Amino acid sequence: xxxxxxxxxxxxxxxxADADAETNAITPSNTYLGTxxxxxxxxxxxxLTSCYATTTLLLQVTQGPVANTPSPLERCDDNNDGYNIxxxxxxxxxxxxxxxxxxxxxxxxxxQDDATLGANPLGNSYSNNTPWTQxxxxxxYYTLTGCxxxxxxxxxxxxxxxxxIPSDYHACDxxxxxxxxxxxxxxxxxxxxxxxxxxxxxxxxxDQPSAEAGGTNYISNVTNYFNTTPNTxxxxxxxxxxxxxCYDVVxxxxxxxxLPIVLTPHYQQFEMCDxxxxxxxxxxxxxxxxxxxxxxxxxxxxDFYPSYTDAVNNTNVITNTASYQNxxxxxxxxxxxxxxxxxxxxSISTMDLYVNELPSPVAPTQPLAVCDTDQNNWAIFNLxxxxxxxxxxxxxxxILTFHATIPDAQLGLNQLPCQYxxxxxxxxxxxxxxxxxxxxxxSIxxxxLNAHPKPYMPVLTNLEVCDYIGxxxxxxxxxxxxxxxxxxxx
Length: 490
Description:
The protein is mainly β. The protein folds into five domains: 8-58, no CATH class; 73-159, Sandwich (Immunoglobulin-like), CATH 2.60.40; 169-257, Immunoglobulin-like, CATH 2.60.40; 267-356; 368-453, no CATH class. It has ten helices and 27 strands. It has helices at 16-21, 92-96, 112-117, 188-192, 208-213, 290-294, 308-313, 386-393, 406-411, 485-489, and strands spanning 8-13, 39-46, 52-58, 73-77, 85-87, 104-109, 125-127, 133-142, 147-159, 169-172, 181-182, 200-205, 225-226, 232-241, 247-257, 267-273, 283-284, 300-305, 324-325, 331-340, 346-356, 368-372, 380-382, 399-403, 419-421, 427-435, 442-453. The protein has a four-stranded mixed sheet. The chain has a four-stranded mixed sheet with strand order 10-15-14-12. It has a four-stranded mixed sheet with strand order 16-21-20-18.
């Protein structure tokens, strides 16, 4: 208006009359809200002479480009440091309301001043420079009119859940086929750790690509899942924030552990002879059977129970395994549980405790006696005389052996020969061991040996009498033999 001249004052009015009268000037003139097609009257006055001139100014309002406030751009933070890379152009369509109109440009700036000036535009791939959230400024510029509009764009970085890689999930191979049921829900707390289960979902997938993609092809029956590859299988667990969709994927290894090997339905019975205690009851050293039960397996624990049911329920475990007395006379079936101490897998079997009855030999009621022919109190005894043995066996097939002492008889040592020469003069006690050939159980009875001295016959003087009978001199006479008795017994 002044063409750059100095010493002039310019004022603006809504009418010519006001401009001429210098009344009702528009103030402040730099923020006047006008309308399209409105005429403004301009008064230009010389500050020295007060002379003035007027002119008009036509206001034209040009429609600026569309600039909608966009939704925030949101990204998940893979390493939870609060930073990520945003593709800023992803907000452009929402800002301009669709496709970018001809002649309109959109630029993104760190500050409002840069946006206003169109300075320092950001690249399309931008990493926020303040953690977690940042506001940048968008300039929408129409090159034909030079008009621009401005909106703010919020960049938000969401933390991703950090799931815990769970320990391997072990389950026991009940059917010995490498396949068993897993209750996957029991691993959820371990996987979540400190993650809030109310704000996150946990889904199990059979492969990693499916877990990364999400979707609905996750395992639905998590409480009774059977592995699809024998012995071991890796599942993939997706933990997702319900609000943000940010997620983490971790592996879960399923391991099917074999059961300990046991003999089924039972082990060979554990037999003892009824030597001590009440009839039909004995103290069994169960520890002596552990090696037989394990058959060379290592890393196993063997527990004994009063019954099969107790072994199944793991109740009433026997603690005095070194000296356990059967609860029922002669036969008592124990439950046996063999447990792998590493995996906890176990197998169950049984073993009969069997108390064998002892042989019942008949002890001789009379000593076994022989004559001592040389009268030295020593003699040879025929211990194996069948008639004598039959009186002891009484029809049973016991194995009979003879021993000089009870310990030898108990141990079956130092068996005496059939033709035995006593080693105690005149009278000796030896012991008969009667053993059942089927059970090995034995009983011991004593036998008294007597060596009777044979009577000594002295050389007698002749008895002489005269042949008086009938005076026949026939060589016959009566003798009083008793006259020799004193000499014989002397």
